[in-house]
Structures are given as C-alpha cells and as structure tokens.
Amino acid sequence: MRKYDAVIFDMDGIIFDSERATLACWISLEKKYGICDMEKNFLACIGTTKDRTREIMLEAYGDEFPYDLYAKEASKMFHDKYDGGRLPMKKGVTNILDYLKKNHKKIALASSTRLKTVIEQLREAHILTYFDEVIAGDMVAKSKPEPDIFLLACKKIGVDPDNAYAVEDSYNGIKAAYAGGLKAVMVPDLLPADDEMIKLAEIVVNDLDCVVDYLSKFK
Questions:
Q1: Cα–Cα distance for residue pair 51/55, rounded to 1 Å
Q2: Distance in angstroms (rounded) separating the CA atoms of residues 201 and 182
Q3: 104: Cβ–Cβ under 8 A, 6 or more apart, which residues?
Q4: What's the CA angle centered on 200, arms 59 and 41, to 5 degrees?
Q5: What are the φ and ψ backbone dihedral angles of 100, each rounded to 5 degrees?
Q6: Spatial separation of the C-alpha atoms in residues 36 and 89, rounded to whole Å
Q7: What percentage of the chain reaches a pLDDT higher than 90?
Q8: DSSP E strand boundaries for the chain
Q9: Interatomic CA distance for residues 181 and 197, integer angstroms
C-alpha cells in the first residue's frame, strides 16, 4: 500500500468555487465592453499568478488592451458579491479536511493567489486552522507549472515530496506537482482532464469526497 504523510491542496477550483465565480465577472465585462473570446483566454490563465494572467491577456488582446482597468472592475464585482464568507466552497471540503486531521496527516495549501487573499478567504470560510502551512504565489520566484510552490510547502511541513499528495484542478498545477515528485490527484473544475493530465495524475476523480475514498486505501 502506498504511504503518504501529507496532502497539499490548491485553493481556487479545489477549495472554493472561485474560478467559476471569477469567470462570470469577466463574462459580464465581455458583454459590457464587447470583448471577444473571454472564456477561452480566461481558461488559459487558470493555475497562474496575477502577473502571468496579465501577460496572457495582453498577448491575446494586444498591448493597448486596458487589462488593469478591466481587472480592477472584475475584482470589485467579485468582492462585492463574495466577500464576508459568501464564496462557495467545493463539494467535500470539510469532509476531506476532517478526514485528514482524524488520520493525523499534514495539510498544506499551495495557491498561485497572493497570500493576503488566500488567508482572508480561508479565514472567512472558517477553515484556516485546518492548514499546517499556507504557501501563496507571492512567496515563490517561479509559479506553476514549476514545482517551487509544492517543494516549499513540503519543506515547511517537513514531508518528503514523494510522501505527499497534491490535489489540483488545473493543468499547470498537475504539471507542477508531478515535476516536484508529488503524487498528483486531479479534480477537474473548468478544465477537463486531457490525455496529458491523465498520464501525469495518479487518478482523476469528480470531487473531494472521491479523493477521500481514494486516500482511504493508503492509511
């Protein structure tokens, strides 16, 4: 049976249904300003940092695209609707966190989102105390698909990467976990598992309850 000591979670699309919520804000801007192909270009940004997202959008729409203004407007729409603990969590979040605590596993978070936002959202959802360590995108020099964020998380919790699972929804996240030597579990959100993800991930499952079922084989 495969031993593991820790599980490291992505946040957006795994803990919170935030990617779908953010996409809805950008689709509203698409309709308001007549922007084309917003969903396609938004999906290309999943699993990246704020800075890389800006680069992707400018590559898609050109240097004259007022990304900063649109991003500010989309951010206001998001925070007006979801701040204060209103951001919906994905199915099975508390179930898997309780399961891991009960079985004395280390729990960490490795998100490309900046630390201030990560802490606020976890605290407002009353789940921050579950995590032994929280690593954010502004704490590493290289973002996903580079493995730096997962390697730092493993270092902080004192666990070898090959004894840790990474739970991810994005292509960049799965690539980062695999590159770091962690066992990747994909729970698709907006992006389906393609052939590459199926090859890199240990397993692809529908939700976090299914992850619990999978991990229960390896106590």
A1: 6
A2: 10
A3: none
A4: 20
A5: -70, -40
A6: 30
A7: 95
A8: 6-9, 106-111, 133-136, 164-168, 183-186, 203-204
A9: 15
Helix (H, G, I), strand (E, B) or coil at 49: coil
- Residue appearing with tokens 């997202």: 53
Q: Per-residue pLDDT tens for 153-182? A: 999 999 999 999 999 999 999 999 999 999
Fold for the domain defined by 6-16+89-218 = Rossmann fold (3.40.50)
DSSP annotation of 106 reads: E
User: Is 174 in contact with 191 (CB distance < 8 Å)?
Assistant: no
Render pLDDT for 101-139 as a digit per residue (tens, 0 to 9): 999 999 999 999 999 999 999 999 999 999 999 999 999
Token code pair at residue 178: 């695999």
Q: Measured between alpha carbons, how far is residue 218 from residues 29, 65, 211 in Å?
A: 46, 50, 11
CA 21 vs CA 18, 92, 96, 141, 177: distances in Å? 5, 18, 23, 27, 25
Q: Quick one: 17 exposed, middle or buried, by C-beta within 10 A (0-12, 13-18, 19+)?
A: middle
Give CA–CA dist 163/176, Å, rounded.
Answer: 16
User: How far is 96 from 42, CA to CA, in rounded Å?
Assistant: 29
> Which of 217, 214, 182, 218 lies closest to 10 in space, CA to CA?
182
Distance from C-alpha of 64 to C-alpha of 1, rounded to nearest angstrom: 55
Q: Which two tokens stand for residue 54?
A: 């800006």
Task: Indicate the average pLDDT of the chain.
Answer: 96
- Element containing residue 101 per DSSP (H, E): helix 93-102
